[in-house]
């Protein structure tokens, strides 16, 4: 199995590929910000490059998972559709995205009905998360992409792709119903700054009391265990830890053996709890963030991970963060190792 963690700026985008019966299967989990595909400032991004590689190899994106509607997860695919929709229609076989239409059908409710007056009004900002979700849903419906099922916990999907199994941990029905009420225009908040906690010691950070993320759209994030042969990967999107904990407990196993964890919400201190870590047996943790927004990743999260394991490998897709977060003294410890991640073969 091959894992590529794209440089998705402050977002997430991960490609998982494996071979089954001589055929390559590609699972693309989120697509980062628009610049992950292309921007005038940075040119072609890694998302555009992997799309071209898949096309050149006559392969497909067997499953595209958009965990939730935030710009740093959905922006790249919207940029791709805007630039080259025909290639997208050629490559994408199936999409997972909990759209307003699917949620309406699931709950037999119309609270998420799109308001075209908002979209066409002068105050409409296409960068608000809810507007991006609606735009993505329009592309799906108008171009007959396959996106027909609500993705929710606790569901095991053994035959979606040959050679793999998905165990869905988030969202719950409760999270989806809360999201239903959010399918309306919300104020655009351009404030993305926040202080970092990098100047604090391990001891200081371990004294902090955990406070969980309360944002509804993060709570609706798709999180799952992916099993391929004897390997198990945990992708947490921006999920709330209490939701994932509830699902893991319901699996009726004391601890889940996991080979790699994609840490929730770019290692926000509000999305990784001790309770969650107590249910995971894993040494390898992936953090996807360029460190330029919201003060993420939080050092507190990394310290919490290290404290819960005899040894931890902490992987960064932007390795320049390592020296910003840790002192030389901390890096010389025996409890953890920090390194760059771009591609993994496991």
Descriptive account of the structure:
This protein is an alpha/beta fold. The protein has a single domain (2-345), classed as Metallo-beta-lactamase, Chain A (4-Layer Sandwich), CATH 3.60.15. Helix content is 31%, strand content 21%. It contains 13 helices and 18 strands. The protein has helices at residues 46-56, 71-91, 100-107, 116-120, 129-142, 173-180, 202-206, 216-219, 241-250, 274-277, 299-307, 321-325, 328-331; strands at residues 2-5, 14-20, 23-29, 38-39, 43-44, 63-65, 95-96, 155-157, 164-170, 223-228, 231-235, 256-257, 260-262, 280-281, 284-287, 312-316, 336-340, 343-345. The strands form four sheets. It has an eight-stranded mixed sheet with strand order 8-9-10-11-13-15-16-17. A hairpin with a 2-residue loop joins strand 10 (223-228) and strand 11. Helix 1 runs parallel beside helix 2. Residues 115-126 have low confidence and may be disordered.
Which strand order do you get reading across the main beta sheet?
8-9-10-11-13-15-16-17
Average pLDDT score: 91
Question: How many helical stretches?
Answer: 13
Just give the CATH class.
Answer: Alpha Beta
**Through-space gap between termini:** 5 Å
- List segments where confidence is low: pLDDT < 50 over at least 5 consecutive residues: 115-126
CATH topology: Metallo-beta-lactamase, Chain A
Largest sheet report: 8 strands, mixed
Computed CA radius of gyration, to the nearest angstrom: 19 Å
Number of domains: 1
Secondary-structure-based class equals alpha/beta
Spatial shape: globular
CATH-derived architecture: 4-Layer Sandwich
Counted beta strands: 18
């Amino acid at each position: 199995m091959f894992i590529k963690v794209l440089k998705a700026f402050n977002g997430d985008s991960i490609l998982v590929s494996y071979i089954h019966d001589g055929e390559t299967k590609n699972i693309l989990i989120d697509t980062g910000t628009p610049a992950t595909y292309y921007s005038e400032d940075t040119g072609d991004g890694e998302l555009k490059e992997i799309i071209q590689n898949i096309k050149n190899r006559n392969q497909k994106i067997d499953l595209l998972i958009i965990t939730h509607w935030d710009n740093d997860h959905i922006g790249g695919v919207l940029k791709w559709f805007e630039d080259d929709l025909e290639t997208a229609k050629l490559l994408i076989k199936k999409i997972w995205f909990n759209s307003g239409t699917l949620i309406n059908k699931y709950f037999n409710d119309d609270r998420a009905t799109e308001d075209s007056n908002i979209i066409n009004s002068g105050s409409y900002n296409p960068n608000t998360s809810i507007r991006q979700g609606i735009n993505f849903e329009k592309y799906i419906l108008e171009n007959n992409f396959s996106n027909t099922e609500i993705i929710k916990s606790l569901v095991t999907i053994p035959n979606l792709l040959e050679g793999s199994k998905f165990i869905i941990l988030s969202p719950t029905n409760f999270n989806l119903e809360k999201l239903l009420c959010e399918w309306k225009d919300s104020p655009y908040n351009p404030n993305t700054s926040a202080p970092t906690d990098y100047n604090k010691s391990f001891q200081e950070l371990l004294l902090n009391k955990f406070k969980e993320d309360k944002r509804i759209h993060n709570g609706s994030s798709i999180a799952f265990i992916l099993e391929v042969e004897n390997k198990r990967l945990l992708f947490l999107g921006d999920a709330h830890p209490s939701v994932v904990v509830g699902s893991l407990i319901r699996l009726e196993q004391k601890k889940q053996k996991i080979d790699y964890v994609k840490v929730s919400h770019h290692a926000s201190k509000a999305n990784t709890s001790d309770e969650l870590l107590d249910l995971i047996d894993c040494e390898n943790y992936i953090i996807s963030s360029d460190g330029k927004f919201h003060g993420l990743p939080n050092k507190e999260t990394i310290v919490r991970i290290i404290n819960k394991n005899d040894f931890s490998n902490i992987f960064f897709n932007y390795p320049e963060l390592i020296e910003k977060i840790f002192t030389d003294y901390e890096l010389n410890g025996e409890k953890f190792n920090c390194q760059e991640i771009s591609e993994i073969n496991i």
